[in-house]
């Protein structure tokens, strides 16, 4: 099974800061990588699909990049409402398998 | 508006069974792959099962042979039959719709809590 290693596990940043989270796959997953935001007590929300595509309605300060085994999620200018836990998720099609990273808890400094 | 509403969670003893339901509305349910994802308190997300539009089913090793996902398109409903439950199955269970673009889950329910304890 493919393992996803997400880092850091927690992060403290100031409003306006550029924030970066990384996710590494144990083997080549092409661009089959999605990013989610989860606020306390709420269901996750899809932000980025296929490594770099912004989901409809998601602010443009969120972006993703990478392919193969190394991926990056970036918030260009941190806003107070971005406080949440962020997860990467890879998917396989043959057979279908879906694996989440361990999560990154983002806090305001 | 797309809505997914889970029900059926509760307290069950180890070794017991429980059936979760997810009522879907606001989209053509039969045209989408559907999933169950769980989250133990304070922990990360774990994919639990998937069902395709043709009724094909998929599971990770942690639940294979114990959990069964099914769908009833006429009722716009998704189900998860959970047998031989263990303390480690305690979690909030979410149903989720798989996006048509990529393997992401674009809509989620609010979740239903399953507690396995004696």
Produce a short descriptive summary.
Chain A is mostly beta strands and 109 residues long. Chain A has no helices and eleven strands.
Descriptors:
heterodimer, A: 109 residues, mainly beta, 55% strand, B: 118 residues, 7-stranded mixed β-sheet, 4-stranded antiparallel β-sheet, 11 strands, 0% helix, 51% strand, globular
DSSP strand count of chain A: 11
Helix count of chain A?
0
Structural class of chain A: mainly beta
Q: How does the helix and strand content of chain B classify structurally?
A: mainly beta
Share of residues in strands of chain A: over 45%
Calculate Rg of chain A over CA atoms. 13 Å
User: How much helicity do the residues of chain B have?
Assistant: under 10%
Overall helicity of chain A: under 10%
> End-to-end span of chain B in angstroms?
40 Å
Quick one: how many beta strands of chain B?
Answer: 11
Distance between the termini of chain A: 37 Å
Biggest interface, chains and residues, is: A-B, 26 and 23 residues
What composes the largest sheet of chain A?
Answer: 7 strands, mixed
Helix-strand pattern of chain A = EEEEEEEEEEE
| Spatial shape of chain A | globular
The dominant shape of chain B is globular
**Oligomeric status:** heterodimer
**What value does the average pLDDT of chain A take?**
96
Whole-angstrom Rg of chain B: 13 Å
């Amino acid at each position: 099974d493919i393992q996803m290693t997400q880092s850091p596990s927690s992060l403290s940043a100031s409003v306006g800061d550029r924030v970066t989270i990384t996710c590494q796959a144990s083997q080549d997953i092409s661009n089959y990588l999605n990013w989610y935001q989860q606020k306390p007590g709420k269901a996750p929300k899809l932000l980025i699909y296929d490594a770099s595509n912004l989901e409809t309605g998601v602010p443009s300060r969120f972006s993703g990049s990478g392919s193969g085994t190394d991926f990056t999620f970036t918030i260009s200018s941190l806003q107070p409402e971005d406080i949440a836990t962020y997860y990467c998720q890879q998917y396989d099609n043959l057979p279908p398998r879906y694996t989440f990273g361990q999560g990154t808890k983002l806090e305001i400094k | 508006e797309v809505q997914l509403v889970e029900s059926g969670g509760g307290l069950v003893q180890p070794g017991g069974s429980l059936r979760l339901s997810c009522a879907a509305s606001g989209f053509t349910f039969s045209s989408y792959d559907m999933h169950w994802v769980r989250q133990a308190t304070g922990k990360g997300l774990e994919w639990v099962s998937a069902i395709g539009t043709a009724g094909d089913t998929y599971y990770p090793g942690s639940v294979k042979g114990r959990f069964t996902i099914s769908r009833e398109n006429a009722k716009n409903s998704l189900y998860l039959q959970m047998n031989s439950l263990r303390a480690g199955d305690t979690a909030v269970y979410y149903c989720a719709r798989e996006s048509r673009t990529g393997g992401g889950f674009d809509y989620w329910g609010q979740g239903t809590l399953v507690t396995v304890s004696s």
